[in-house]
Amino acid sequence: MTDNGAVRRMLLTNIGELVTNDPGDDREGDELGIVRDAAVLIEDGRVAWVGPAVHAPSGAAATAGDAARHEREDRREGEEHRAAWDADVEIVDLGGRAVIPGFVDSHTHLVFGGDRADEFAARMAGRAYEAGGIRSTVSATRGATDDELRARLAGFLAELRRQGTTTFEVKTGYGLSVTDEARLARLAAEVTDEVTFLGAHVVPFEFREPDGPGADAYVDLVVGEMLAACAPHSRWVDAFCERGAFTAEQSRRVLEAGRAVGLGVRVHGNQLGEGPGVRLAVELDAASVDHCTYLSDEDVAALAGSSTVATLLPGVEFSTRQPYPDARRLIDAGVTVALASDCNPGSSFTSSMPFCIAVAVREMGMTPAEAVWASTAGGAAALRRTDVGALRVGARADFAVLDAPSHVHVAYRPGVPLIAETWKDGVRVA
Ligand code: NIG
Ligand code: FE
């Protein structure tokens, strides 16, 4: 609504290629639901109409200069069309560029202190990636003030927007004490509704045997006091079910406890080797199981028969020099695949979804169209959201304008800043 209570209307016109992710009768045959020479009518931050500009309810104003002529045409076409114009439609001419839904980054770890550039450099000199590096970020995070972490988050938020991301999830997991995990959940909730409680990231120093009480005692804390402190700020619960982190039984305890207090389930699994993560995720009807780098045929079959999304994180394999996950195998088996950044200081310090798309296309067997879908509609599926990830009537008007004529260029021009504009809820934010 505007200040005087009128509906705020805006017509985006002159869109050379519009990716809707909504295959319709008048759309090209793939899942991207492409409309050429398109227009989108936005009302109060939501998509009110989408289609070829010549059929736009405003009278098909292809450019701002055509507005007056089309207004006259509209006025002959009846009450319904007049309504759109009567309310001061703002015309936005996108100059023939491509528009895609805003990226939905369904997996990040953006609340942390410090960085691990030295660890990255050592890895590039031949050292292997180990989950244990997480503990060095835990020390840096515990030592950071709320305002330091907030400033860091604000910087990442600006970075995300510049790169076309309009919805993002943030996990806790670098606090690993009741006070610090609750603090991270609270700070994450200041920037997103998609907060995930990841107290079960690794066992912190003070619990590790032989001097500490051990992993099971830590899990007792996670499912008790820590969950109670974090759940009010969180939508999801997650566990790192992997060698060096938590067993299937420990992960199950955490995930079931989270679910019992109303949190949705997601799992980190099959990152460093085959293991029980994927099957546990499917058994618990998790919204997503993330990494999926090492999968058995049984894992793939289990995912294909489930509503659990496989979220692949190309930045991790890029930065750890592990083999990339096989997206082609999953898609061909009928699994829903999402792409996400996993932005964190250890295994993947990129917040760039265009980078992830380029790597997924080059290294993981995805087509450019599949990779764009996986980073928008796929991410929305991984967060079980229907209001983002597609430009269909009723959805949020979240989108990116590309400095390019088609979505293919995102993968075709790696490293080039093609995101010209980012819009969220019908407002330009970058
Ligand atoms: O998703 N896999 C576990 N957690 C992160 C890594 C975090 C870190 O290395 O700090 C991930 O890759
Ligand atoms: Fe992660």
Please describe what this structure looks like.
With 430 residues, this protein is of the alpha/beta class. The protein has 2 domains: 9-101 and 394-428, Urease, subunit C, domain 1, CATH 2.30.40; 103-382, TIM Barrel (Alpha-Beta Barrel). Helices cover 35% and strands 20% of the residues. The protein has 15 helices and 16 strands. The protein has helices at 67-77, 79-86, 117-124, 134-142, 146-162, 178-189, 215-230, 248-260, 277-283, 297-304, 314-320, 327-332, 353-363, 368-382, 409-412, and strands at residues 9-19, 34-43, 46-52, 90-93, 98-101, 103-105, 165-171, 194-200, 236-241, 264-269, 288-291, 309-312, 337-339, 399-402, 419-424, 427-428. Strands 1, 2, 3, 4, 5, 14, 15 and 16 form an 8-stranded mixed β-sheet that branches. The chain has an 8-stranded parallel β-sheet with strand order 6-7-8-9-10-11-12-13. Helix 1 runs antiparallel to helix 2. The longest helix has 17 residues, at 146-162. It is globular, with a radius of gyration of 23 Å. 53% of the residues are buried. Residues 59-79 have low confidence and may be disordered. Bound molecules: N-(iminomethyl)-L-glutamic acid (NIG) and fe (iii) ion. Fe (iii) ion (FE) is lined by residues 107, 109, 268, 342, 344. Residues 99-426 form the Amidohydrolase-related domain. Belongs to the metallo-dependent hydrolases superfamily. HutI family. 4-imidazolone-5-propanoate binds at residues 116, 174, 201, 271, 347. This is Imidazolonepropionase. Pathway: Amino-acid degradation; L-histidine degradation into L-glutamate; N-formimidoyl-L-glutamate from L-histidine: step 3/3.
